[in-house]
Specification:
single chain, 12 strands, glutamate-tRNA ligase activity, 19 helices, mainly alpha, Rossmann-like_a/b/a_fold
């Protein structure tokens, strides 16, 4: 085989969900791992259910995930003339024929076949009648078998006698799905089709069309579905959301791709992969033939790993964007990117997502007078014994030359020596005073990021509570 050309061909009857995104990722990796091309086709022939909004959402999702495509996006609905041209060629070559059997006729044929212990299928009544109108059916071979080696499932063989003469063109002149897919894949130069295993039954039928047209047959692979933790079909209650919902929830696209890749593909025991590593290591031979289970806890862990490694400035930009979505551009502009860039490194070790990080960052970005205090923490730690200590610490901070982590650490070390106490005696009171709760990053890092003015204002407000 020469250059590999793979494709992703979603139908815009809904948004791109996590299962479709995984299929797109595997198809993208199949091409990129071999230096090939990855094409995108929108299968929008169902005009009643297809929407422009869903089309835009699919394209946005692919862009967000970093799954770039080669060439122009192909819209299947714009190619009906080409599809019909191929059907006419098949009729002229004797590989297709007109059929005028009604739906009731065909239903009766199928019932009769089942009663006789056979496959419920069309019996070929019009196959040799030489009609010139009606639906158009494929004149499929009646003997032998159609075989292919599935990249995931291995060899698959289907007896031709089990397949009927499928319809290629409906009475209204519209081509059927199986015909359109084959023509589009051929014209786009697709050499490798990796898709969900809900299509595995279509593949032998599509191969018959390739053979009728004397076209090269691509290689096929069918990945199994993703299941929920209860081993049932993945649904919204398991986390089967649209891709852009994960963006709104603050997940990083590279983490989403990493997690999806590991749902059905492996390379040794490695869990975390950069996009470059996935491209270098991907091999369809390592795709699993059994369904994978979506684990939201594992997903969050993977995202947390990427949050820890992310560039703080990039996270700062995302925090600015998420804050603007929440409170509006004008209000969000009061917190600049540089401020978030100082805050982010403190929060990266524990942040599960950008949304989670923004929640953790709130105490850092409000003025001291608006800081929310946890009532239980206040009662427990801001006591008559600790408030004088906080007041004295604030006084010492006022005279501090540089307001840095080392200078703050030295100040507190001297303070506890002077009072003959342990650091834990003041740690939680300080934490509650400057953050409002008993949980925060390191105290000296936190104070350095808050700055002298805010730290002092918070300490003194806490003393007055």
């Amino acid at each position: 085989m020469g250059k590999i050309v793979s494709r992703f061909a979603p139908s815009p009857t809904g948004f791109l969900h996590i299962g479709g995104a995984r299929t797109a990722l595997f198809s993208w990796l199949l091409a990129r791992s071999k230096g090939g091309e990855f094409r995108l086709r929108i299968e929008d022939t169902d005009r009643e259910r297809s929407t422009d909004e869903a089309t835009r959402a699919i394209i946005d999702s692919m862009r967000w995930l970093g799954l770039d495509h080669d060439g122009e996006i192909v819209h299947q609905s714009a190619r009906a003339d080409r599809h019909n041209e191929v059907i006419d060629q098949m009729i002229a070559a004797g590989h297709a024929y007109y059929c005028q059997c009604s739906k009731e006729d065909v239903d009766a044929m199928r019932e009769k076949a089942m009663a006789e212990g056979g496959k419920p299928k069309y019996d070929g009544t019009c196959r040799d009648r030489g009609l010139t109108s009606g639906v158009v059916r494929l004149k499929a071979p009646q003997a032998g078998a159609t075989a292919f080696r599935d990249m995931v499932k291995g060899p698959i063989v289907v007896a031709n006698a089990e397949m009927d003469d499928m319809i290629l063109r409906r009475t209204d002149g519209s081509p059927t799905y199986n015909l359109a897919v084959v023509v589009d894949d051929h014209d786009m130069g697709v050499t490798s089709v990796l898709r969900g295993d809900d299509h595995v039954n279509n593949t032998p039928r599509q191969i018959l069309i390739y053979q009728a047209m004397n076209w090269d047959v691509p290689e096929f692979g069918h990945v199994p579905m993703i299941l929920g933790p209860d081993k049932k079909k993945l649904s919204k209650r398991h986390g089967a959301l649209s891709v852009m919902e994960y963006e709104k929830m603050g997940y990083l696209p590279e983490a989403v791709c990493n997690y999806l890749a590991r749902l059905g593909w492996s390379s040794g025991d490695q869990e975390l992969f950069t996009m470059d590593e996935m491209q270098a290591l991907f091999n369809p031979d390592n795709l699993g033939a059994s369904p994978s289970v979506f684990d939201l806890t594992k997903f969050e862990w993977v995202n947390g790993q990427y949050m820890q490694k992310a560039d703080p400035d990039r996270l700062a930009g995302m925090l600015c964007d998420f804050l603007a979505r929440e409170v509006g551009e004008e209000e969000a502009a009061k917190v600049d990117r540089a401020t978030f860039a100082r805050i982010a490194p403190l929060l990266q070790p524990r942040a599960k997502s950008v949304v989670h990080m923004l929640e953790q960052a709130r105490p850092f970005i409000v003025d001291a007078q608006f800081l929310h205090y946890d009532e239980t923490a206040v009662q427990q730690h801001l006591t008559a014994e600790t408030k004088p200590l906080l007041e004295e610490i604030a006084g010492r901070m006022e005279g501090l030359g540089e307001f840095t982590e080392p200078s703050l650490e030295a100040l507190h070390k001297q303070f506890i020596e002077d009072h003959g106490i342990k650091f834990k005696a003041i740690a939680q009171p300080i934490r509650v005073a400057i953050i409002g709760t008993t949980q925060s990053p390191g105290l000296f890092e936190t104070m350095a990021v808050l700055g002298r003015e805010q730290t002092l204002a918070r300490l003194r407000r806490a003393v007055s509570l």
